[in-house]
Amino acid sequence: MNVQKVMLSVGLFLLRTSIVVLVIVGIYKLGEYAYNCGYSIVADMAAEPEPGRDLKVTLTSDMSVKETAQLLERRGLVHSADIFQIQLKINKYEDSLKPGEYILNTSMTPKELMKVMAGEVEEEDEDKEE
Fold first, then answer.
1. What is the pLDDT of residues 35-58, one digit of tens each?
2. pLDDT tens digit string along 65-93?
3. How confident is the model at residue 124 (pLDDT cuts 50, 70, 90)?
4. Between the CA atoms of 16, 19, 23 and 24, what dihedral angle is there, to the nearest 10 degrees?
5. What does the DSSP assignment read for the chain?
6. pTM of this structure
7. Quick one: pLDDT at residue 39?
8. Can you tell me the distance from the alpha carbon of 119 to that of 97, in angstroms, rounded to the nearest whole number?
9. In a domain? residue 91
10. In the chain, fewer beta carbons within 10 Å around the N or the C end?
11. Residue 20 lies in a domain
């Protein structure tokens, strides 16, 4: 009977140790996921390196922010529709996107995409030297 008690104690110890290890790994993975999501939101990284690809995108007046973000994700302009929706809200562009046809590039950052679709495109003064 002593052998059975020892085996039971060893088994319970291994079970408890396994549970603790699984909880620690789960917490680590959750933290890693949260960090990656947070970083993606503030990093403002383009979907592709320059020169990227030009794509025609049409926004209609009945499109929701979610539908717009999903369209950009499908076209390869943003990595994640969910992250882009959060970026729109943080940058206060959620209600500023205007319907229309846009030529967007996959090397544009999410903030640049927002500015174009909100009609805030700034003129580039590369040719003007004063």
1. 988 888 888 888 888 899 999 999
2. 999 999 999 999 999 999 999 999 999 99
3. very low
4. 60
5. -HHHHHHHHHHHHHHHHHHHHHHHHHHHHHHHHHHHHHHHHHH---SS-TT--EEEEEE-TT--HHHHHHHHHHTTSSS-HHHHHHHHHHTT-TTT---EEEEEETTS-HHHHHHHHTT-PPPP-SS---
6. 0.73
7. 87
8. 8
9. yes
10. C
11. no
Residue 54: phi and psi, rounded to 5, are -80, 135
CB neighbourhood size of 24 (10 A): 10
The verdict on residue 66 lying in a domain is: yes
- Copy the structure tokens of residue 4: 């059975």
At 4 the pLDDT is 82
Q: Is the pLDDT of residue 99 over 50?
A: yes
Range of the domain at 104: 54-117
How many structural domains compose the chain?
Answer: 1
For residue 48, the model assigns a pLDDT of 86
CATH of residue 73's domain is 3.30.1490.480
Q: Is residue 15 part of a domain?
A: no
